[in-house]
Amino acid sequence: MPPRHTRPADSNEIENLILAAFGKDEALEILPLVDGLLNAPTDPPVISLVSAEHDQIDGFIAFSPVFPVSGSGVCGYILAPLAVLPAHQRQGIGSLLIKHGLTSLAERNADLVLVYGNPHYYGRFGFEGAIAEAFQPPFEMAYPAAWQGLLLDGGTMPRTPVSFKPVPALNNSALW
Ligand SMILES: CC(C)(COP(=O)(O)OP(=O)(O)OC[C@H]1O[C@@H](n2cnc3c(N)ncnc32)[C@H](O)[C@@H]1OP(=O)(O)O)[C@@H](O)C(=O)NCCC(=O)NCCS
Fold first, then answer.
1. Phi/psi zone of residue 62: left (φ > 0), alpha (ψ -120 to 50 degrees), beta?
2. Separation of 121 CA from ligand 1 center, angstroms?
3. What is the bridge-based pairing of β-strands 56-65 and 67-68?
4. Which of 30, 54, 57, 49 minimizes the C-alpha distance to 116?
5. Which residues line ligand 1 (CB under 6 A)?
6. How wide is the angle at C-alpha 168 spanned by C-alphas 22 and 119, nearest 5°?
7. DSSP readout, 79-99?
8. Alpha-carbon span 85 to 90, nearest angstrom
9. CA nearest neighbour of 34 among 8, 11, 66
10. Atom 30, ligand 1: residue with shortest CA distance
11. Distance CA 26, CA 112 (A)
């Protein structure tokens, strides 16, 4: 089954998935993020998708808009978080969720997707550190090499660095 948009009734299953994928300690930081993203009244809205097998949710991804503070008209999103049920990992579910999300964002005429994650994993989808360098997050990053970007069709690099604000759920220094 292709990924679908989340529904309010998915919350408990998504919470269990996050706990299983990230483990209890990391989930303490990720669960409030997910809760905030699923309930964020932003414009444009957060895009959150799940994959499911036999009606069991086994993958989750969210893309939240960024809000440039320096007058750039760029339409960008941050990919976070991404999680796949441990027993279902390495079967292409994470890749499917990313590709489905990127297609959905391209259809909404987004210019850019940013991610703060393992370059080894995200590099295979075309994310590059050099693109993210032009976009300055609101906090100093613990792992600057994990900050990557991907330009979607029609997206161009800004001429000057762009500072931005994320949605409130990501406006937390502990996540950076
Ligand atoms: C990262 C994650 C979402 C990948 O999901 P997945 O469905 O297993 O991914 P895919 O099947 O599409 O891709 C699997 C490939 O990714 C690689 N991979 C998986 N997790 C990785 C990680 N944390 N870092 C680097 N590579 C990773 C695997 O080596 C595998 O490659 P291979 O099969 O060529 O060896 C999943 O491992 C997960 O939920 N991890 C825990 C939560 C997490 O760390 N999320 C990412 C936050 S940025």
1. beta
2. 6
3. unpaired
4. 30
5. 21-22, 81-84, 89-95, 117-118, 120-121
6. 45
7. EEEEEE-GGGTTSSHHHHHHH
8. 10
9. 11
10. 90
11. 27
Tokens 């808009």 found at: 65
Which neighbouring-strand residues pair with 163? 136
Cα 161–chain centre separation: 21
Residue ID of nearest Cα to ligand 1 atom 15: 90
Tell me how far the alpha carbon of residue 95 lies from the centroid of ligand 1, in angstroms. 8
Q: For residue 23, report the distance from its CA to the centre of ligand 1, in Å.
A: 15
Distance of CA 60 to the CA centre of its chain: 10
Structure tokens at 128: 């590059």
Q: Which ligand 1 atom minimizes the distance to the CA of 98?
A: 12
Domains in the chain, please, with CATH? Answer: 4-175 (3.40.630.30)
Question: What would the pLDDT profile of 86-119 be if each residue is shown by its tens digit?
Answer: 999 999 999 999 999 999 999 999 999 999 999 9
d(CA 138, CA 115): 14
> What's the CA gap between 26 and 148, in Å, rounded?
21
Q: Read off the pTM.
A: 0.95
Q: What is the pLDDT of residues 53-68, one digit of tens each?
A: 998 999 999 999 999 8
Helix boundaries (H) for the chain: 11-38, 93-107, 119-122, 129-132
| Nearest by Cα to 21 from 80, 89, 77 | 89
